[in-house]
Design brief:
Strand content: 25-35%
Oligomer: single chain
Low-confidence stretches: 62-75
Radius of gyration: 42 Å
CATH topology of the largest domain: Jelly Rolls
Length: 206
Amino acid sequence: MAIWTFETVRPLRAFFEWLIGQMTKWLNELKGDFMRTFRNSLIISLGIAIGAVLLALPALRLPQVMADAYSSHRFPVFGYIVDNPVLSIAAAGISTNPTPVTGVSAAHVTWVFGTISGTYSGCTVQAKTSYDGVNFLNLGSAASVSVSSNAVNAWDIYQQAPVTTGVTTTTVSDTAAPGFGQYVEYAFACSSYGTSAPVTITAIYK
């Protein structure tokens, strides 16, 4: 019968201690490799996701809102346009610079005169519009204005609404526009002129 003594067991104990140490070391190394692999995979996946989003952004488009096909009251996306044309009136007729107004169908206009020098009579303001930016046609009829010191003149210009059903065809004209085009300007004229007529113009387009 074998007799187990301390001297015979010690080598076996040492072997098991070495084996346990090696297994513990291997498990720690395996855990470290796994965490590094997981971390690297997470970083790569996040980078791919961010790259895909950045590539997709230029292709995004905001939804477009379509106007009613039968409505003449098509408001600009910003609601309205406020314009203050500058005009230096002296002893002759003169026109304002054109204002971009694409998409509007109405205008609220005021001409407020300052201190007048001389006498102006038979004065009118004719609104004109252009579809191509070159040829200007009369927009409605001329408005008769009072040109005297501190005189206030206010009027509206409305585009005629079409019928609610079917198709509307306006009368062809080379002098009168059926509605607002891309630009609007105002032509001032009188039958007789003074010397100076400073004026403040405000036009609100909708």
